[in-house]
Amino acid sequence: MTNVSSNLDLAVAITTKNNMRTIERTLRSVQPIASRIVVVDSGSTDGTIERCQALGAELIHKSWAGHIAQKQFAIDQCRDQGWIMLLDSDESLEAELIESIGDVVLEDDPIYDGWAFNRKVWFLGGWLHHTFQPEWRLRLFRSGRGRVTGIGVHDQIEVPGRTRRLKGICRHDSWSDVRDLALRQIAYAEEAVRSGIRGGSTFNLLLSPPAAMFKQLILKRAFLDGFRGLIAAGMTFNYTMLKHSFIAAERLSKRR
């Protein structure tokens, strides 16, 4: 077991806007291992900027450029470190993951370019142990080796070399409550339209929403998470229907 240290050759990149609900947990979780914490903020007005500065983060303002471009900009500011970790402002590291990351950066094994962790949702006061699980996200990578790819709100890090998985959990405080979840789903569906994601067919509208819910409720066994799991699984139906409905409506409007 490694005694983690902020002297490690690791920079953490985070993008923010009005994230007071979660940003302190995020920053405090990486302080033991990060020699630099770089926060790229796109216009917070709720105190996020002041909280980040009070906790020792470097603040950079950049107008919102979209999920992919904004995150790429954030990691580009960290290239002076040997390793970079990209986090969302609602993600935080649990103790075992902190130690795993410390071990990897300290060992600096040249065989691997990137490392992934399992992200687990904390929802309505408890863990979703089955819903959306496992969700492996490659977020730790060698400087200059990782780039952000994806479409819409679905981003990922790609590296040219070998990758491996870390022990431990990243806590994902995605939504404060069900209303927050619903509002975010509307925003994500709108982003899907703007980014040109395909869909909106009759097939998509009839089959994709129940398929999304079936995947979580039965295949992922969301029912074992109790009411939290049932709600989360049901909301996957909601989001999928919203997304394909918005895409279909956009297509119809262009035909007029």
| Residue share in β-strands | 25-35%
Largest sheet data: 9 strands, mixed
CATH superfamily of the largest domain: Spore Coat Polysaccharide Biosynthesis Protein SpsA, Chain A
**Which second-level CATH architecture of the largest domain applies?**
Alpha-Beta Complex
Overview of the molecule:
- With 256 residues, the chain is an alpha/beta fold.
- The chain contains seven helices and eleven strands.
- The chain folds into two domains: 10-172, Spore Coat Polysaccharide Biosynthesis Protein SpsA, Chain A (Alpha-Beta Complex), CATH 3.90.550; 178-255, no CATH class.
- Helix 5 (178-195) runs parallel beside helix 7 (226-255).
- The chain is globular, with a radius of gyration of 19 Å.
- 37% of the residues are buried.
In short:
With 256 residues, the protein is α/β, with parallel strands linked by helices. The protein has helices at residues 23-30, 48-54, 67-76, 95-107, 178-195, 202-219, 226-255; strands at residues 10-16, 36-41, 58-61, 83-88, 91-93, 112-123, 126-127, 136-142, 147-151, 154-158, 162-172.
